[in-house]
Amino acid sequence: MADKDHDDSLYDKRNAFNNEEYAKELSADQYDPEARKREGEGRPGFRWGDRQAEGGRGAGWLALVISIIALFFLPVILGIAGIIIGYIAFRQGARTLGGWAIGIGIVAVCIQLLSPLFG
Question: What are the residue boundaries of the structural domains of the chain, listed by start?
């Protein structure tokens, strides 16, 4: 009987790598690639309980604020900074905020560069 128990446990260890459920329990990574399918959103996410962390949201707001300030003060410098930070936010998942920041930053730079032509 003791030999049979030993063989069963050895057999389980050999086939454990082929068992999907066992492999998922052993994985220590918190990334859940199926979260996008379950929640119906277009963004992949990290899951901590029932909460999903959205990357780039803070950078998106920062870029948007910088781009709006660029319309009134130091348009070339702040406009380019807003475009760069907006692109970073766009790549991290805050697509709307990043897109608006890029657009407003481009408008601020273009207004500054084209203003001598009309003055």
Answer: 2-53, 57-118
